[in-house]
Amino acid sequence: MHGFANPARFLRLARWLTPLLLVTGLVLTGITLTWALLAAPAERLQGDSAKILFVHVPAAWLGMGGWSALAIASLTELVWRHPLAAIGARAIALPGAFFAALCLATGSLWGRPAWGTWWVWDGRLTSMLVLLFLYLAYMALAEAADRDGGNGSGQSRIPAIFGLVGAINIPIIHYSVLWWNSLHQPPSIAVGKSAMAPVFLYGLLAASLGFSLIFGGVVLARMRAILANAQAEARLRRKAMELEDA
Amino acid sequence: MKAKHQRLVLALIAVIALVGAGVLAAWALRSQASFFYLPADYAANPPEAGRAVRLGGMVEKGSIKTAADGVTINFVIYDDKARVPVTFKGIVPDLFVEGSGAVAEGRRQPDGTFVADNVLAKHDENYVPREMKDMTTEQARQAIEETK
């Protein structure tokens, strides 16, 4: 693990892993979604509108998984002071927010035909909206902290503490449909059991893998961009000092 | 104890305390945060007449009756403990069918019945292709089990 905390080694790995993840992810997602639109069967009660689950469910998982990864990176930053952990957490925030927003948008489109409403203040929907706001708050906080203490170098621990505290929302999202009577149905899939017909289940797993690969590729690309930025700024500072000395 | 171990222990204690606080708060909110009353709660502890509440449960088989005006429907929402007659005037979602879940937003009347302003359909966690549509939910669930 300490090996990957070395930025030079990380950059060597990320250079070829980034395009690999992005391309395989885009191809897999493209194939799965085309199949979902053209060939997947209609659902027994909901008809074709249930096919939106191939986007909605991966988006929900990645929105929640994104914050889980952000919280682990924050913990790593706080405890082991790995500089890459701080950069990783910052890189996750934007795609995480994107997938949380995608989950809310597709859920709203799905809710209209299935439930008869675009939006309700139900436990699951509200806690997911809170997750989106947490992402936006994290991005604003990290931006402000870095402006004070130098780009992503982890001078300020405040974003990491916020990332860790925000993780409390993840179990709340998951259990909201079990603890409280909600309009949203309980999960269809748990480890070892599924209430989905195999055709929907395997399609969903393929779509989730595709979106996850894209997510990973975007995070790596953003981490490389943050590192390159930091490098460029350090070089500029050095140049400026040389000029002053001369 | 090295500094990083100290930080690890501190961070873990903080996380455990945080999760504990969150779970306790969520637990305390159990009744307030629920989206709707179950028929059992509704019967045992009826909300005052005229206050806006939501009532959620299963739509009783054979209970949906359209009134003579063609737009008013009457149905019964029930759970294993109680049944509540509901009146609604308007358009219901496609998934509103007998034997599946529904949530009615409206007010309790002094006579104990419920008049809904809006009806939402609640769908379950089962996803079954249309080819299996003639099966009941239970048969479909078994068919899913067998093909795995």
Précis, in short:
The complex is a heterodimer of chains A (246) and B (148). Chain A is mostly helical and 246 residues long.
Descriptive report:
By secondary structure, chain A is mainly α. Helix content of chain A is 76%, strand content 2%. Chain A contains 7 helices and 2 strands. Chain A is globular and about 75 Å long. Chain B is of the alpha+beta class. Helices cover 29% and strands 28% of the residues of chain B. The mean pLDDT of chain B is 82. Chains A and B meet through helix 2, helix 6 and helix 7 of A and helix 1, strand 6 and helix 3 of B.
Overview features:
heterodimer, A: 246 residues, mainly alpha, two-stranded antiparallel ribbon, 2 strands, globular, B: 148 residues, alpha+beta, five-stranded mixed β-barrel, 6 strands, flat
Q: Estimate the helix proportion of chain A, in percent.
A: over 70%
What's the arrangement of strands in the largest beta sheet of chain A? Answer: 1-2
Q: Main beta sheet of chain A: strand number and arrangement? A: 2 strands, antiparallel
Instruction: State the end-to-end distance of chain A.
Output: 43 Å
- Largest sheet geometry of chain B: 5 strands, mixed, barrel
Radius of gyration of chain A: 21 Å
Overall average pLDDT of chain B: 82
The radius of gyration computed from the alpha-carbon positions of chain B, rounded to a whole number of angstroms, is 22 Å
Question: Major sheet of chain B: order of its strands?
Answer: 1-3-4-6-5
Number of helix segments of chain A? Answer: 7
Low-pLDDT windows of residues of chain B:
none
* Residue fraction in strands of chain B: 25-35%
Assembly state of the chains shown: heterodimer
